[in-house]
Amino acid sequence: MCSVCLPLSKLNKTELIKIETTSAINKKMATYEVDHQSSVSRHDNKWRENIISQLHERNRTQTSCFSDLITLHNRLFENVNTLRGQNMQLTIANETLRRETSSSTGTSISLAHEARLLKQTEELTALHRKNGEHMQQIVDLNKKMQEMVKELQAKDTSLAECMETTNSLRLEITKYINREREYETINQMLKDEHQALQIAFESLEKKLRKAQEENRQLIERLKKYKERDAEKLNEENDNFLKKRQAKVQKELEDAARDTRPVSPDRSSLKEGIAGLPTTVPTKVSVTFSAHEGEVYAVKWSPVDRILATGGADRKVKLWSVIKGTSESKGMLVGSNAGVMSVDFDSTGTLILGASNDYASRVWTVSDLRMKSNRVGRARGTTMLLAPTVQRHYFRADPSNYHAKLPHFASLIGIGGYRTSGSMYYLALSATSKDRGRDVEGDWSMVG
Fold first, then answer.
1. Residue 19 and residue 434: Cα distance in Å, rounded?
2. Which of 304, 407, 424, 433 is deepest in the core (most CB within 10 A)?
3. Does residue 107 surpass a pLDDT of 50?
4. Residues 134, 73: contact at Cβ < 8 Å?
5. Residue 96: CB partners within 8 Å, gap ≥ 6?
6. Quick one: how far is CA 55 from the chain centroid?
7. pLDDT tens-digit profile of 222-270?
8. What pLDDT does 4 receive?
9. What is the pLDDT of residue 202?
10. Rg (CA), the chain
11. Residue 172 CB neighbour total at 10 angstroms
């Protein structure tokens, strides 16, 4: 009996110490809360009240999900405290009864009290066990709550970042929407301008077609007038040739009747040069690079040792060739295609060039300047001749054989190539009435 009572007394003392300690802590906490509330009321700062209200709000929001568990835990603590009080009372009663019955022989009453005490001890042990389980559950729930608080903080941080990203994206969307509206306005303006330009283009295209039709009609009329003029000039040329042939025939008859000796003059020598014997050259005297491409034409000056060359680089170059050396004397420009033929006049002061841009040009040798530019009608001028004798040649268009006379008395024309490859020349005399006019002549094949 004594062995049972001793642990119970010790246990009751321990529980009493715990109860006293708990009550002391509760008193201190109440005192701290009262002091804290009094200090807060003394300072009366809004920011502290704001912080406290935020803490209370956070406590309310974070503990609302555990309110049932906390209520149950508080009830268990109240039950434990009640049982502890009852146990304390029973322990005191037990000690009193033990003292009273120690001198008596009431064994049955003591046994009944011992049995009752043992039963209450077992109940107290079960309650302590349940209390420990509940405490462990509270610890686990606190850990879970801390983890959930951490997750909540992480989610709050992520939510704040997402809100910032959303705000920035909204600003960008607003900016892009404004830019899209500006682009739509500009696009509409460009469409209106394009429509206006399209209308203007259609109007100009109609005017162009009308002008082209008028131009075609004018060209046809001009061709008809040119053909008429050419026919008239051909008749005049035929009459002129007939008269000249009659005059030459008469002069020949007079010369045949005249038996006086005749001394040769320069004109007869010039006309007889064609009968002198010729030889093929066998030795190269001078070699030099004249043009940046092919060389199409060369011609010696009749008065100086000046050589004119024309090539594919659209230039006519003058060279002084003396004692086996060549020296550049100038360059004549103005052609829009390769120069196919060059020639000097009888005095050596003018030089004539023909190129594939449907034109022939005249330059002065002294100042290297262009004096005249004559444009043909078709595939380009292929050959030019300006001989020093009285017989001259036309510059001919190779597609319709139409000749155009320049404004120089010493130069009348040249010939050209047909599309079949044959070469033709047209010969007329140089008279004042033929200068600068379009004529239609008699052609004779030369090779």
1. 148
2. 424
3. yes
4. yes
5. none
6. 60
7. 999 988 888 888 888 889 888 989 999 888 888 888 655 555 444 444 4
8. 36
9. 94
10. 67
11. 10
CA distance 373 to 381: 12
List, in order, residues 6 or more apart from 390 with CB less than 8 Å away: 429, 430
Asked if residues 332 and 368 have their Cβ atoms less than 8 Å apart, the reply is yes
Please list, residue by residue across 109-131, b when 16 or more beta carbons sit within 10 angstroms of its beta carbon and e when fewer do.
ebeebbeebeebbeebeebeeee
Task: Judge whether 389 and 421 are in contact, CB under 8 Å.
Answer: no
- The whole-angstrom distance between residue 282's C-alpha and the CA centroid of its chain comes to 64
369/346 Cα distance (integer angstroms)? 18
Q: How many whole angstroms separate alpha carbon 309 and alpha carbon 289?
A: 11
SS (HEC) of the chain: CHHHHHHHHHHHHHHHHHHHHHHHHHHHHHHHHHHHHHHHHHHCCHHHHHHHHHHHHHHHHHHHHHHHHHHHHHHHHHHHHHHHHHHHHHHHHHHHHHHHHHCCCCHHHHHHHHHHHHHHHHHHHHHHHHHHHHHHHHHHHHHHHHHHHHHHHHHHHHHHHHHHHHHHHHHHHHHHHHHHHHHHHHHHHHHHHHHHHHHHHHHHHHHHHHHHHHHHHHHHHHHHHHHHHHHHHHHHHHHHHHHHHHHHHHHHHHHHHCCCCCCCCHHHHHHHHHHCCCCCCCCCCCCCCCCCCCEEEEEECCCCCEEEEEECCCCEEEEEEECCEEEEEEEECCCCCCEEEEEECCCCCEEEEEECCCEEEEEECCCCCEEEEEECCCCCCCCCCCCCCCEEEECECCCCCCEECCCCCCCCECCCECCCCCEEEEEEECCHHHCCCEECCCEEECC
* Mean pLDDT over each residue of the chain, to the nearest integer: 74
Confidence of residue 29 (pLDDT cuts 50, 70, 90): low
Rounded to whole angstroms, the Cα distance separating 21 from 28 reads 11
Question: Tokens 């001749």 label which residue?
Answer: 385
How many Å apart are CA 440 and CA 234, to the nearest integer?
5
Q: What residues form DSSP beta bridges with 355?
A: 339, 359
215 sits in the region (left: phi over 0; alpha: psi -120 to 50; else beta) called alpha
Q: List, in order, residues 6 or more apart from 52 with CB less than 8 Å away.
A: 40
Whose tokens are 């309110």? That residue is 67
Q: How many CB atoms lie within 10 A of CB 311?
A: 20
**Residue 46 confidence (pLDDT) above 90:** no
pLDDT tens-digit readout, 296-351: 899 999 988 889 999 989 899 999 888 878 888 888 988 888 899 999 998 888 99
